[in-house]
Write a structure and sequence with these properties.
267 residues, elongated
């Protein structure tokens, strides 16, 4: 099996580091292969080498300037690099070539979402709707749309959308966090804790879900007055602080839990 086909097989199996090595070999063997460079860019992206992925996509575009898939991939890498306006412009180029490229709509929406102002968020929602109109099962667009609905406080709409997203892609930690947050706002504490645990299992070193878990447990304690719940909140927030000792919000939340603990025992 040649390096490119081996890389494709490994990519489909989710063995991204091994696929990366195979695609690196493939572009050495056939440096004029825009397809090999495109997959190399994608693997560099998912393994965290954003600048390397930008270089790979630029190489594709030197070989094939109208390669919409490379433009979409470059747009995603620009998002990861924090260059949101450049990402939008790059996705616009991809969509000018292929208006039905779902991933380009999603990447463009992601850039608008990350800009985060009111106008951009509205346009991001429309972009995700465009993606879902083209592919109603596009889990990534569902996840980002759920994130927008969370910011708008539309929790009843988040639950079915995020539930469908995790059914389509159970490894989407962001969707699990959105689902947990929505359940929490309805005080469905057990469902919220189950959802946030999925996020923690998927990404144990990501602080956001640990803070979310601590908040859910702290709020649950206000209703059940079970010290085991408060202790679990303290453990979750302590874990979050261990991941990022500089996070003052997490530290403040932990201090509040300890204050409640002391009041509960009268000392």
């Amino acid at each position: 099996m040649d390096a490119f086909n081996r890389g494709m097989q490994l990519e489909q199996q989710g063995k991204f580091a091994e696929a990366l090595a195979a695609f690196q070999e493939a572009v050495r063997d056939t440096p004029s292969s825009s397809l090999a460079w495109t997959h190399l860019g994608a693997m560099l992206q998912v393994t965290g080498d954003v600048q390397g992925s930008l270089g790979a996509f630029d190489r594709v575009l030197q070989l094939d300037p109208r390669n919409a898939f490379a433009l979409e991939g470059k747009g995603r890498s620009l998002n990861l690099a924090g260059s949101y306006q450049a990402a939008i412009a790059t996705c616009d180029q991809a969509l000018a070539i292929n208006p039905n490229l779902v991933e380009a709509h999603c990447a463009r929406g992601w850039a608008l979402f990350l800009i985060g102002d009111k106008r951009s968020m509205k346009e991001a929602a429309r972009e995700f709707d465009r993606a879902l109109a083209l592919n109603p099962n596009h889990a990534e667009s569902m996840t980002y749309k759920a994130g927008i609905l969370l910011t708008e406080g539309k929790f009843s709409k988040v639950i079915p959308l995020a539930t469908r997203a995790v059914a389509l892609n159970p490894s989407d930690a962001r969707a699990w966090r959105s689902l947990a947050t929505a359940y929490w706002n309805f005080r469905y504490f057990d469902a919220a804790l189950q959802a946030v645990q999925h996020a923690n299992d998927l990404r144990p070193n990501e602080q956001t879900a640990w803070i979310l878990k601590g908040g859910i447990l702290r709020n649950k304690f206000a209703f059940d007055r079970d010290m085991a719940t408060l202790q679990a909140a303290i453990e979750a927030l302590s874990h979050a602080i261990a991941l990022d000792p500089s996070d003052q919000d997490a530290r403040h939340a932990l201090d509040e839990c300890y204050s409640v603990f002391r009041r509960f025992y009268g000392r």
